[in-house]
Amino acid sequence: MLGPPAARLDLDAAPPSNPLRTRRPAAGLAVSGAWLPAVLAIVGWWALPIGRPNRPFLTLEPELYAVAIGHPLLWLALFAAVAALALSFLPIATARRGDLVLVAGVVGLASVVAWFMLSTIPFGVGALLVLAGLVMLLGNALSESGRVQGDAFIASSILFVSLFVLLFIIYPLFTVLRSSIYIDGRFDFSVFLRTMRHPLFFMLGNERSAVDEVALTLRWGLAGLVGFGAFALWRRARWTAILTRAVLGGALGLVVGVLLYGNGALPTSLLLVSIVAPTATMLGLAFALLGQRARFGAVRRSLDVISILPIITPPFVLAFAMIFLLGRRGLITYNLLDMSSGWIFGLPGVAIAQILAFTPIAYLLLRGSLSSLNPALEEAAQTLGAGPWVTMRTITWPLVRPGLAAAFLLSMIESLADFGNPIILGGNRKYMATEVYLSLTGRFNPNEAAVYGAVLLLMVLGAFFLQRWWLGGGSFVTVTGKPTSGALAPIPRGLEIGLTVVLFVWTVFVAALYLSIVVGSFAQLWGVNYTFTLKHYQDFFSGAGWAVLLFTARVAAVSAVPAMLLGFLVAYLVSRQRFWGRRFVEFGSLLSFATPGTVMGVAYIFAFNTGPVLLTASATIIVIALVFRNMPVAIRAAVAGLAQIDPSLEEASTMLRAKSLTTMRRVLFPLLINTLVTGLIFAFVTAMTAVSQVIFLVSPGNQFATVLLLGWVDQGQLGRAAAMGTILIVSLLLVIVVVLQLARMLGARMVGVRT
Amino acid sequence: MKRFAVLLIAASALFLGQAQAQRVNLLCSPDLAWCEALGPAFKEATGFDLEFQRLSSNDGLARLRAEAANPIFDAWFGGTGDPHLIAFREGLTEFYEPTVWDEIIQDLKDQVGGTYIPLYAGALGFVVNEGVLDGKPMPQSWRDLTDPMYKGLIAMPDPNSSGTAYTIIATLVQIFGEEEAFEILAGLHQNIAQYTSSGSAPGQLAGRGEVAIAIQFMHDGVKFAAQGFPLVSYAPVEGTGYEIGGLSLIANSPNRDAAIAFIEWALTPEAQVLAGELGDSYQIQSNMNTPAHPLAPDFAAINLINYDFNTFGTPEVKERLVGRWTNEIFPTPR
Description:
- The complex is a heterodimer.
- Chain A is mainly α.
- Among the domains of chain A are: 204-262; 263-504, MetI-like fold.
- In chain A, 71% of the residues lie in helices and 1% in strands.
- Chain A contains 29 helices and 4 strands.
- Chain A has helices at residues 35-47, 66-69, 72-89, 94-119, 125-144, 152-181, 190-197, 213-234, 239-261, 265-293, 297-312, 317-326, 331-336, 347-371, 375-383, 388-417, 420-425, 432-441, 446-471, 493-522, 535-542, 544-576, 582-594, 597-608, 619-643, 647-655, 660-688, 705-714, 718-754; strands spanning 182-183, 186-187, 523-525, 529-532.
- Chain A has a two-stranded antiparallel ribbon. Chain A has a two-stranded antiparallel sheet with strand order 3-4.
- In chain A, helix 23 (582-594) crosses helix 25 (619-643) and helix 25 (619-643) crosses helix 27 (660-688).
- Helix content of chain B is 43%, strand content 16%.
- Chain B contains 15 helices and 11 strands.
- In chain B, strands 1, 2, 3, 4, 5, 6, 7, 8, 9, 10 and 11 form an 11-stranded mixed beta sheet that branches.
- In chain B, strand 1 (24-28), helix 2 and strand 2 (50-54) form a beta-alpha-beta unit.
- In chain B, helix 2 (32-46) packs across helix 11, helix 3 packs parallel to helix 4 (81-89) and helix 7 packs across helix 8 (178-191).
- The longest helix of chain B has 15 residues, at 2-16.
- The termini of chain B are far apart.
């Protein structure tokens, strides 16, 4: 089934140093490989327009050719490319020539970029070729001069990846963060401070409520201080330890107090996270234990299905199904339990919806980390006389801790960034991710949106580094290169029965939810009139729905391929190569994963609406947003896959004088085909159901299915929404099953032929 | 390397290759069904193509602002007037006087002056699901809404995210004066089950029985009733405010001629009847020659206040009133 999405971009493991790559290149290559990219750049410069008048891309405006513009910087770029071409054919020592070409490449690239920044003319087709040519030329030069260990392909890839990260992740985020404190051309902290003090963001002391929230919070702080201090005293800790624990306890108490009594988006989102993340993680662990070790095969198989459901479910639809089951007139609450209350709108509803959505993701992660445990350890414990409970507590639990931390972090990030559930079920509370959207659209305040975005981003990054710091020491690796075998310790029987009951309730509830979506799509009026009808499907196929769905599928498919290839490339570079800037690439991909979609969407509008990188109002910008959104998932899948492949295979290929691209294509690709296809499907499916990152990027003629869905939901067209939901769920499920099956067959054949 | 270069060129040509033809890019804020009905009819009448992006009027203004330096849209069709007014004051839109200007209802023209073109008018009211009231009387006035028996049964949009909610506050202030209006809002706050982020969501909640009473525009209530929800819509006895839907020409629009052709067409009775016939939209249309749809709320029977769009449409007044609501009403515990 599908691999788990990225939780921890586990790129830290140091790549093995490859002795074959440390040599300086042999002198005396007759012709430098830089000639081809140089030609590319020259052709782009001469034959195609370097700029374009505005949004239309494929125009051949004569006045926007570099020759017609005739700016000195442009001439300099051409001169540099021609010089590089000439140098390529000169008989000089390779390393020396590499240095010279390097200089030419840097001059060329710098002058083109400088010209674009000065002129702010949008880039044209020619510029793409010029830039790509110059970057590849630099890659060649870096490799031949021996400044980068690796061939031209590796060096160019490093350059391209770094440039992409800079341009499509760091730069937009920088733009949006800057606009939270840099307003109308100067630094201005007033919006920042005003937002921070606004009751919608955070308010503790509410003078209108009967209770004194500040005093209550302080009481919690005091209780924490005393409680932790007393506990440390009782444990006879040293006085410094007592002091630190008391202070920590006090701080914890204050946080609890703020969460309980505070108002506004910040405490609400934090409270939500502190409910959802632990619950989803624990449920995920329970299911993972069942999935791996349950005595009944049926239990394991049902988990496989449950685990992919949230990935293929479009946003909003499940939240609506919940209203129909649990709302004031809900099928379960009103018709079965005879309750009549709107409790579902607010924290409880959002929390349930999020737990439903994120538990399967935690499950996938934890199943991975459980199955990589070495059973011999558990066996050893049992041979030494430990019972199942003791084994579980002393062996299994400590070993899954990193997996738990990863699952916890992932649920946290997802919960903070979740847009669809709070906007439908949020009730009267405010949530950070929706406030980013609402402060921009409802209050027309982009600077305020930037402030919310910045705070949200800092929270996510804080959580990420906290996790890294917590797991920093200690090795949890139990899988060594050699295959291990052994029987898995069964779960204690009492625990298994308990967990199976939980799973059963879960399954029934989830089944009811999905069933109600299908029923809703065939009902005259979901929630009111359940007469059977096909009109929603007719409306869907005759109205805008079908065309938009096709367009969305095309965009998602186009975005999935580069996301997967780029992810694979980044994974290869960071896990197999050492280079300057590796940390930067890692950090960039972490950022693109951790940034909530609404923040990234705003950032793209801020960054790409004018100037050289004009991209708005096109399908391209949606594709790019989705590529960089889904790339980290592909990276993680590929890193995990690469970790299982012995580098000696690649070394053998290199030794036989294969270039790195050939090695990648003929050794790694066939071996990783399953992983890569899984990454591809995952990227496709998440692109199909993405909403928060594209909601600002859609434009006339470039509609996205989920955004259309939001429109229908907004206007009460729930039948049509349910029909689209059903079609999406069923077709994505089909795609997953069919493609995975194909990949399995293809992978077997490719490996069979080539090894 | 060669292969890589070829691949790169192919890839860039593949997904960047899309040219744009001359057409109207419409920012469309009313019901999606209405937006969808426009394209084919406009093409038939004028031969121009039309692509639209449906965004609520608030989202629309946000997009126009974000894209101000390089607009994507040519015209802005529908949506409540305040954002149109703000867009005009910020220079995002320009006023265009259509040739059918004389046929536009005079009152509407007087209200908006030369800022945007009135497209339709719709009045605020109560949208009630009687089944959920469990025998309680239907509220007849704004003051009735503060009665504790309606606790947890009322929904209205959130002033911090919805223009409709601001129209509600501004209406109350104009009927009762500011202090009394905020007293009513405070009482109402005690009964509110949910402040929704979108202006038409309260009616849906009422339709599905999540609440009994929704405060919103009546024509949206009529629309939900036409879809089959058990709802009735009516105006409160003290009088009610209304919105004027706008039609604006985007400043520096990329296809100005096509945009003007669209505006001219959109104000004709033939175009305006589409709202009710195909668009699930039951507002009063701005051209006096457009026949009213039978389901549209009858303005003659409603006690409409003399809504002061010029005062209450300014961002300063709006910011002050919404800020006061956010600081005084919203944090009050219930």
